């Protein structure tokens, strides 16, 4: 009887119902945030939201948004939040919540394009829409959902073969936040293989021999560069990026370039930070080692990103997920909203995962537990003044749980049928390597 009731309930769930429930959930969080902000020392609203809003006030008065200390984003965000002062203060939060819902719609469309059945699509979409982390981040006023819309739109258009429109949204995404630039190499490799499916197939089978180097492999994969599609993508995306950047440069000068882009190269954040480098950077802050160590921290990222791009670009969605996961995990600065950069891509992989409910539950529990332990230690340090910096095990717990979720043998986005019948694989899921093989390959190349 119970199982029949569950089955009947499942049949009644539609995307519209899921979106409505998600909207109510986020609006409830927004109202709760207003209550918490007025009563507790620990505020619900993200400090960045106040920075965005203050910058938009400067824009209204014809001034530079960078007059607001710590505003280090594209001026586009300040212009988007002008209604905060013309309508109501939470306008930006509502806007980011709507972007959250739009992300769910795009995820559903990409999965439909890949031939995923309705029930599996809704389950995957719910991982984003009903996720308390993603809902809280947008309700607190963080703008990551806007970036997620641009990134996912770019992938959707690319999978549909609409290269020009994909390049437009990709160029805008890189302007909003520079990190999507890491997708440029896998996208170009994907466009090369799409135009010439047989290109590089012989070297692909022996791609990651221990004696191979990243440079030699990259040279093999880039033979025949560039084709018409690649040229179009580079020209259009560059035109969009430099047009937006050029407009704001004319308005605000070199200060815009430094604050929005260059600052992040040398940025340090030694407090509420999930980065594996945070404690090292804390110990050497103010010394002559601070700058060179900070720059050297990019090397592991670069090596892993190149290896992932070369080996996984045929499944462009999975490749972007792995690249983003690696970039966030090994970045010098990593706060909670950074996780949304790859969490928006995770639902696109779930229908093709071999992992069962038990494995997903274990990994999810480890991931949230590690984050909870670390946030508790950060609270004790920053709000209570307790010396918790020696508790480096909090980061080790979180870092190991994050790495396990990528290294798990069952976490391959390819189902057994794809492996046993490669000629029947969906064209966008044609990569023959599993996550474990990729991980071993990355070790060989780095």
From TrEMBL:
<keyword id="KW-0472">Membrane</keyword>
<dbReference type="GO" id="GO:1990529">
    <property type="term" value="C:glycosylphosphatidylinositol-mannosyltransferase I complex"/>
</dbReference>
<feature type="transmembrane region" description="Helical">
    <location>
        <begin position="231"/>
        <end position="252"/>
    </location>
</feature>
<keyword id="KW-1133">Transmembrane helix</keyword>
<feature type="region of interest" description="Disordered">
    <location>
        <begin position="412"/>
        <end position="446"/>
    </location>
</feature>
<feature type="transmembrane region" description="Helical">
    <location>
        <begin position="277"/>
        <end position="299"/>
    </location>
</feature>
<keyword id="KW-0812">Transmembrane</keyword>
<feature type="compositionally biased region" description="Basic residues">
    <location>
        <begin position="420"/>
        <end position="431"/>
    </location>
</feature>
<dbReference type="GO" id="GO:0051751">
    <property type="term" value="F:alpha-1,4-mannosyltransferase activity"/>
</dbReference>
<protein>
    <recommendedName>
        <fullName>GPI alpha-1,4-mannosyltransferase I, catalytic subunit</fullName>
        <ecNumber>2.4.1.-</ecNumber>
    </recommendedName>
</protein>
<keyword id="KW-0256">Endoplasmic reticulum</keyword>
<feature type="compositionally biased region" description="Polar residues">
    <location>
        <begin position="432"/>
        <end position="446"/>
    </location>
</feature>
<dbReference type="InterPro" id="IPR007704">
    <property type="entry name" value="PIG-M"/>
</dbReference>
<feature type="transmembrane region" description="Helical">
    <location>
        <begin position="13"/>
        <end position="33"/>
    </location>
</feature>
<feature type="transmembrane region" description="Helical">
    <location>
        <begin position="339"/>
        <end position="357"/>
    </location>
</feature>
<dbReference type="GO" id="GO:0004376">
    <property type="term" value="F:GPI mannosyltransferase activity"/>
</dbReference>
<dbReference type="Pfam" id="PF05007">
    <property type="entry name" value="Mannosyl_trans"/>
</dbReference>
<dbReference type="GO" id="GO:0005789">
    <property type="term" value="C:endoplasmic reticulum membrane"/>
</dbReference>
<feature type="transmembrane region" description="Helical">
    <location>
        <begin position="305"/>
        <end position="327"/>
    </location>
</feature>
<keyword id="KW-0808">Transferase</keyword>
<comment type="function">
    <text>Catalytic subunit of the glycosylphosphatidylinositol-mannosyltransferase I complex which catalyzes the transfer of the first mannose, via an alpha-1,4 bond from a dolichol-phosphate-mannose (Dol-P-Man) to the glucosaminyl acyl phosphatidylinositol (GlcN-(acyl)PI) intermediate to generate alpha-D-Man-(1-&gt;4)-alpha-D-GlcN-(1-&gt;6)-(1-radyl,2-acyl-sn-glycero-3-phospho)-2-acyl-inositol and participates in the sixth step of the glycosylphosphatidylinositol-anchor biosynthesis.</text>
</comment>
<keyword id="KW-0328">Glycosyltransferase</keyword>
<comment type="similarity">
    <text>Belongs to the PIGM family.</text>
</comment>
<dbReference type="GO" id="GO:0006506">
    <property type="term" value="P:GPI anchor biosynthetic process"/>
</dbReference>
<keyword id="KW-0337">GPI-anchor biosynthesis</keyword>
<feature type="transmembrane region" description="Helical">
    <location>
        <begin position="86"/>
        <end position="108"/>
    </location>
</feature>
<feature type="transmembrane region" description="Helical">
    <location>
        <begin position="170"/>
        <end position="191"/>
    </location>
</feature>
<comment type="pathway">
    <text>Glycolipid biosynthesis; glycosylphosphatidylinositol-anchor biosynthesis.</text>
</comment>
<feature type="transmembrane region" description="Helical">
    <location>
        <begin position="363"/>
        <end position="381"/>
    </location>
</feature>
């Amino acid at each position: 009887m119970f199982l029949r009731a569950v089955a009947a309930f499942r049949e009644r769930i539609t995307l519209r119902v899921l979106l409505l429930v998600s909207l109510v959930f986020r609006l409830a969080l927004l109202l709760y945030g207003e209550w918490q902000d007025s009563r507790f020392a620990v505020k619900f609203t993200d400090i960045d939201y106040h920075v965005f809003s203050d910058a938009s006030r400067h824009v209204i008065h014809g001034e530079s948004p960078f007059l607001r200390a710590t505003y280090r984003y594209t001026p586009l965000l300040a212009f988007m939040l002008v209604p905060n002062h013309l309508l109501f203060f939470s306008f930006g939060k509502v806007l980011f919540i709507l972007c959250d819902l739009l992300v769910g719609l795009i995820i559903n469309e990409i999965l439909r394009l890949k031939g995923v059945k309705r029930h599996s699509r809704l389950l995957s979409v719910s991982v984003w829409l009903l996720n308390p982390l993603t809902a809280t981040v947008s309700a607190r006023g963080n703008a990551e959902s806007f970036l997620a819309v641009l990134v996912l739109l770019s992938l959707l258009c690319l999978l549909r073969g609409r290269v020009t429109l994909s390049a437009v949204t990709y160029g805008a995404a890189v302007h909003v936040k520079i990190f999507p630039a890491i997708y440029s190499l896998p996208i170009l490799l994907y466009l090369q293989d799409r135009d010439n499916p047989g290109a590089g197939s012989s070297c692909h089978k022996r791609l990651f021999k221990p004696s191979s180097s990243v440079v030699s492999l990259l040279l093999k994969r880039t033979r025949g560069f560039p084709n018409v599609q690649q040229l179009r993508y580079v020209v259009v995306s560059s035109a969009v990026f430099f047009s937006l950047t050029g407009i704001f440069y004319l308005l605000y000068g070199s200060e815009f370039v430094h604050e929005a882009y260059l600052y992040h190269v040398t940025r340090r954040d030694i407090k509420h930070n999930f980065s594996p480098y945070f404690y090292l950077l804390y110990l050497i802050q103010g010394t002559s080692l601070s700058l060179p160590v900070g720059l050297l921290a990019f090397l592991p990222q670069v090596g892993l990103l190149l290896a992932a791009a070369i080996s996984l670009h045929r499944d462009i969605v999975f490749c972007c997920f792995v690249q983003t996961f690696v970039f966030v995990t090994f970045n010098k600065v990593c706060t909670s909203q950074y996780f949304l950069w790859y969490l928006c891509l995770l639902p696109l992989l779930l229908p093709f995962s071999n992992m069962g409910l038990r494995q997903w539950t274990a990994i999810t529990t480890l991931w949230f537990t590690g984050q909870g332990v670390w946030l508790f230690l950060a609270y004790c340090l920053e709000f209570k003044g307790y010396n918790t910096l020696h508790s480096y095990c909090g980061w080790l717990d979180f870092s190991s749980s994050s790495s396990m979720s990528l290294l798990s043998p069952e976490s391959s986005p390819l189902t057994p049928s794809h492996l046993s019948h490669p000629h029947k694989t969906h064209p966008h899921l044609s990569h023959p390597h599993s996550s474990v093989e990729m991980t071993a390959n990355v070790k060989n190349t780095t």
